[in-house]
Amino acid sequence: MRSSLRSRIKALTAAMLFFSASYAINAEFQKDSNKFQSLPIEGNLLVEGSPAIDVNSHWQSFTRRSQSRIGVNWHPQIGTAEALFGKLASLDIASEKNARKFLAENRMLFKMSQDLSDLTLTRDFQTPLGSHFVFQQKYQDIPVYGAQTSVHFNQQAEIVAVNNAYLPNINLASVTPNISKEDALQVAGLELKVANLSEATSELVVYPYNDTIALAWHINIPTSRHTWELFIDAQRGGLLGEIKDINRYVNGTGKVFNVNAVVATRNNGLRDNNNADSAVPSSAYSTVTLQGLVGNGFLDGQYASSKNTKKRVSNSSNSFIYTRSSDGFSEVMVYHFIDYTQRYIQSLGFTNINNRQIAYTVNSSRADNSFYSPSSKSLNFGTGGVDDAEDAEVVFHEYGHSIQDNQVPGYGSSREGGAMGEGFGDYLAGSVGAQLSGGFQDVCVAEWDATSYSSANPPCLRRLDSTKHYPESVVNEVHADGEMWSAALWQIRASIGASRADKVILQSHFLLTSSANFSQGSNAIVTAAINLGYTSTEVNNIRTILRNRGFNVTA
Question: Topology of domain 250-548, per CATH?
Answer without folding.
Answer: Neutral Protease; domain 2 (1.10.390)
